[in-house]
Design brief:
The chain has about 250 residues and is α/β, with parallel strands linked by helices. The chain has a single domain (about 1-250), classed as Rossmann fold (3-Layer(aba) Sandwich), CATH 3.40.50. The protein contains 11 helices and 7 strands. The chain has a 7-stranded parallel sheet with strand order 3-2-1-4-5-6-7, with helices on both faces. Helix 1 (about 10-20) links the parallel strand 1 (about 1-5) and strand 2 (about 25-30). Helix 1 (about 10-20) packs across helix 8. The chain binds NADP nicotinamide-adenine-dinucleotide phosphate. NADP nicotinamide-adenine-dinucleotide phosphate binds near residues 33, 107 and 186.
Length: about 250
């Protein structure tokens, strides 16, 4: 299986890269920290797969187009693309600060389109392939302390929904994964106990199963699917109780 993964230098992306690194596979590893990707490439090679490192910022449209073209050139056929790279930065919305929000949107929204779209023509030609965006439970409702993060994840999900319709009948599938809390470096900075948090290995197991089943939008773990219902349709007072800013806002 030939797989291109962004955000492969840590957390969920690293776990997914190792999961798909079976003998004979070619894994494209994309993130900015080249040293971490090189280390991961060694581990993947030891697993019998081939790793190719792309030290690229996902918000760089031209560089991502080049990375995709290079990967397609090497692989011939690409089976799976996972737009996983994402950031959750402290918002200073109430202070009127916009630059961090612009950066977040460039990574979490433009980064997703920069990742999946360049692979579409090649997948259409081969008549197969799966395009995946990693969104979040937070994309199902604007949350206090994370308005921009929620909006970015909703945008990624909506984009994949539309893309799936564009691809209907082509053999190519577009889908979205929506984790609740997973223990990774991203959540390590959040204060307090994270409700229904799962380990990275368990998340990778659930995500890869959903990808194999070609789900449309997969929210996990199961407790979070129930939580999503209340988050999506509950009153604002209920949302404030369920997701107080003290829990959802990363420390400055
Ligand atoms: N952990 C959770 O509870 C949780 C819940 C819901 C959704 N998610 C989503 O899951 C995805 C993975 O998160 P994680 O928890 O695994 O976080 P993580 O460990 O912080 O990993 C984030 C990855 O994204 C990469 N990245 C960030 N900015 C980038 C950029 N501009 N260009 C290229 N790569 C970039 C990072 O690599 P470099 O720094 O090396 O570039 C890193 O590999 C994210 O989209 C996140 O929003 C996570």
């Amino acid at each position: 299986m030939n797989v291109f993964i962004t955000g492969a230098s840590s957390g969920l992306g690293e776990g997914l890269a190792k999961h798909y690194a079976t003998p004979g596979a070619i894994i494209g590893l994309c993130a900015r920290r080249a040293a971490l990707l090189d280390e991961l490439a060694q581990a993947i090679t030891a697993q019998g797969a081939r790793a190719i490192v792309y030290a690229v910022d996902v918000s760089d449209t031209a560089a991502m187009q080049q990375a995709a073209a290079a990967f397609i050139d090497i692989c011939g056929r690409v089976d799976l693309v996972i737009a996983n790279a994402g950031i959750g930065i402290p918002h200073r919305t109430l202070q009127g600060e916009t630059e961090s929000i612009a950066k977040l949107m460039r990574v979490n929204v433009i980064g997703v389109t920069n990742t999946v779209v360049p692979f579409v023509p090649a997948m259409l030609k081969q008549g197969s392939g799966t395009l995946v965006a990693v969104s979040s439970l937070a994309g199902h409702r604007g949350l206090p302390g994370r308005a921009a993060y929620s909006a970015s994840k909703a945008a990624a999900m909506t984009f994949m929904d539309g893309l799936r319709l564009d691809l209907h009948g082509s053999g190519v599938h577009a889908m979205t994964l929506c984790p609740g809390f997973v223990h990774t470096p991203m959540t390590a900075v959040l204060p307090g106990k994270l409700p229904f948090a799962i380990g990275c290995d368990e998340a990778v197991r659930l995500m890869s199963r959903a990808i194999a089943a070609r789900k449309k939008t997969y929210i996990f773990p199961w407790q979070v699917r129930i939580l999503r219902f209340f988050l999506r349709f509950g009153s604002e007072a209920m949302v404030l109780r369920m997701a107080p800013p003290a829990r959802t806002r990363a420390p400055e």
